[in-house]
Amino acid sequence: MTNTFSRGLSRRAFLQTTALLGLGLGAGPGFAQNLVKTEGLKPAIGPFRWLDSGGQKGEFFKQYLAKYAQIQGIEVVYDGLPWKEISSVLPLGIRNQSAPDTFNLPIGMEPSVAIAEGWLQPIDNLIPDFDTWKKAYPDGAFVEGVNVFGGRTYGFPFSTERRFNNALLFNQDMMNAAGYDKIGADRALTFEEMRDAAKKMTEGSGGRSFGFIIGGAQEQRWGDVATMLAQRGGATVGNTGLLQGMDLKTGQFAFDHDAYVAGVELLLAMRDDGSVFPGCLTIIAPQAREFITQGAAGMIIQGPWNVPIWEATAPSFKFGVSPGPAPDEASLDNPIWVMQLPNSANMMWLNAKAKNPQYAGDIFHWLGTVEGQVAYANVASSADPAIFPESIKLAKLSDRAKIMLKMAEDRVRVAPNPLVRQPGLSKVAAAYVDPTPNLAQAVQGLFSGQLSGVKATLKKASDARNKALDTAIAKAKAAGAGVSRDDFVFANWDPSRDFGPADYAKL
Amino acid sequence: MAAISHILERGAEGATLGQRIWKSRIDYLFLIPGMLVFGAFIFWPMIASFYYSTLDWTGFGAHSEFIGLANYAELLNDEFFYSAFKRSFLFMLATVPFQMIVGLMLAIVLNNKFLKLATVFRAMIFLPVVSPVAVIAIVMVLMLSPFNGPINGFLIETHLVSRAVDLLGSPQMVLWTLAGIFVWKWTGITLVYWLAALQTVPDELYEAAKLDGVKTWQVIMHIVLPIVAPFAVVIGLISAISALNVFPLIQATTQGGPFFSSEVMEVYIFRTAFAPSSGQFPRLGYASAAGVIFGLSIMALTILQVIAVRRVRRKEAENV
């Protein structure tokens, strides 16, 4: 998992490699121009260490950091770990003072809490000509409460959250054979159509493959898929972390919303039809992805990162993409919502005890230019889209990647974020204890048959989460935070468009 | 000579504790490295766990709050804690008897000096013991896959089942499947213990029985088993503790799922301490409280078995 780089390489070689990598992934040649040694940096103390969640962006960083190590003449250690491992490894590393110089935060950990815990340091003073550099970013890339705290920048954004994290990806031949050849970026399946397609795919294969697959051992997949289905059904709920399933118009968790119930019932109906890949409860998402290219299953709900992976690893595999299914034809154009523009999960944060912060600043600086963003976009493709819109236009992307990005532009909107509105809510997040079972666990339990009664189960999970949040708010208040449940209510939210700084100002 | 011994004994009795320690200082010096290791890796973690169990602490921050026994009180109302606790002991009860009986049967067969290739068979049975748990877990997940796993293929081919069985994905079957894998992996070590125990049966008894025309099963029932029975307590204790420490196997196969149906205590502790669900922070204090309770219960089990060993030995002494 660890890659150590320390040899020198020319600028030409980097450009060639980037271009080849881009071509190999079906993304076209790179646009990186001048990757030159930065003079004047302090000598490195030991290796410069970078930890992220891997995936397609990890492919870029593996290559780029190797070249950077060679040009700067330092040792770089890159680790790309699954989120679950980051959740367990990073806190231990912080405690033992052995954490990498820069890293992704564990999913669900609010940056403000990490700052309060002394994990992070700001990057303002490490990036040359910081203000000019920052101004080149698109609006909404630096947000107080997301990656800026107390006026100081902590999180380095390089990718956008505006992506279809739970799109429908499918085997085109199987979909055609099921009679749904018109399904694509402009026309999603309805729930009924999806169930029918899954059934036909299973029956049509003679038992060799199944209509639908999910990496069900990865508990959180159930919560993410159920939430996307609910959003497509019109539930105006948050999509991730503490806010997952919270109706941001009322400030209450709404797992028992009719749209959630309908979404979970779709999953159970496909299971009862025998259309779901057997053994899906013991496989994780990457395994499920592999089974699709092997023809073992016809449809999967996953993110845009599948596109470059499949195009690189299974170039002859014919697949299509579409937005996630919606309950009926009337809801096909419903949007889905993310919590902010910059992808905060991908964001890199600087260890408060980093041994080589100057190298992190140097790398962040280059990646925050059009040149760096284009080089990044050539490899990251639609998986973790670059945050500069112009870099996406300049990058060479495959047709499917372009479709994925277009789907995101058309249907993904930025929802209001209570943590942006009221930074004091970080104390609530820190005090919050998630009840068991939570949404993801409840859906998994319903699917595995250990829980019964969709509405009742989801209501129970919703009530428990509301109660847990009230408890956390009370604790935070007792600790001096001026917070209330009203901070989660956005009465002025128009779900059809991005909720921006002007909307926050009106609150 | 006896007089000298008497004087020495009296001298020893008359000395203070300090004088006796000083007298044996070289012996104590040799004990220090062992005591340091014991203190650092056994004693200190035990004390630290109890201390952490009294804190509301994520485990990675500087901020922690002393909350007394509140974590314990919360645990007592946590149905998932009870379920995991029960599952751990259920797993132990399901595996240990099997392991011991199968191990003993194999040991009796392989202890036969006239059995050709006994060494080869012993090595084959012992092979899973030395194989890494992670490797076994990955292989088993593939073998047991309901989609293309060879075990399901065999079951369907032989018409034992009509459709594939999701042995690791079925909440009803997952724990028993894991128990089967556990027994398969660790029976080799139980076999070795039993083989050692069987060496205590004198050859003369086998020879006398043979001359008397005693049947094999009678030899086993009336000669072998009574002699090796006391060893069962020790082997049972070792096997029971091993069955309660099953974290690597379960984490590498099911991670306690689906929906907690294979979540034993160690997985529960790990989940609460290091791998919380999205939107939540780890709870090291709470996990430590669960660890303390689980540790104490294993300790109680150990004490019970130590008492049992003593009783067996006392009986043996009385019989002699």
Helix/strand order of chain B: HHHEEHHHHHHHHHHH
What's the CATH H-level homologous superfamily of the largest domain in chain A? Periplasmic binding protein-like II
Task: Estimate what percentage of residues of chain A fall within beta strands.
Answer: 5-15%
CATH architecture of the largest domain in chain B: Orthogonal Bundle
Question: How many E strands of chain B?
Answer: 2
Name of the CATH first level of the largest domain in chain A: Alpha Beta
Helix-strand category of chain B: mainly alpha
Strand order of the largest sheet of chain B: 1-2
Q: List the quaternary state of the chains.
A: heterodimer
| Apparent shape of chain A | globular
Distance between the termini of chain A: 46 Å
**Integer average pLDDT of chain A:** 90
CATH architecture label name of the largest domain in chain A: 3-Layer(aba) Sandwich
Give the count of structural domains of chain A.
Answer: 2
Concise overview:
Helices cover 43% and strands 11% of the residues of chain A. Chain A is an alpha/beta fold. Residues 1-33 of chain A have low confidence and may be disordered.
Describe the protein.
The complex is a heterodimer of chains A (507) and B (320). With 507 residues, chain A is of the alpha/beta class. Chain A has two domains: 2-159 and 343-398, 3-Layer(aba) Sandwich (D-Maltodextrin-Binding Protein, domain 2); 162-339 and 426-507, D-Maltodextrin-Binding Protein, domain 2 (3-Layer(aba) Sandwich), CATH 3.40.190.10. Helices cover 43% and strands 11% of the residues of chain A. Chain A is built from 20 helices and 17 strands. Chain A has helices at 11-24, 55-72, 83-95, 111-116, 130-135, 172-177, 191-204, 219-232, 258-273, 285-293, 306-313, 357-367, 370-380, 389-394, 399-411, 418-421, 425-431, 439-448, 454-478, 501-506; strands at residues 2-5, 48-52, 76-80, 102-103, 120-121, 148-149, 152-153, 155-156, 167-171, 210-213, 246-247, 252-253, 297-302, 319-322, 336-338, 348-351, 412-414. In chain A, strands 1, 2, 3, 4, 5, 8 and 16 form a seven-stranded mixed beta sheet that branches. In chain A, a hairpin with a 2-residue loop joins strand 6 and strand 7. Chain A is globular. With 320 residues, chain B is an all-alpha fold. Chain B has two domains: 2-52, no CATH class; 78-319, MetI-like (MetI-like fold, Orthogonal Bundle), CATH 1.10.3720.10. Helix content of chain B is 73%, strand content 1%. Chain B has 14 helices and two strands, in the order H-H-H-E-E-H-H-H-H-H-H-H-H-H-H-H. Chain B has helices spanning 2-14, 17-23, 25-52, 70-76, 79-110, 118-130, 133-143, 150-157, 174-198, 203-211, 216-244, 247-253, 265-273, 284-319; strands at residues 55-56, 65-66. Chain B has a two-stranded antiparallel ribbon. In chain B, helix 4 (70-76) packs across helix 14 (284-319) and helix 11 (216-244) runs antiparallel to helix 14 (284-319). Chain B is flat. Chain B starts with a helix and ends with a helix.
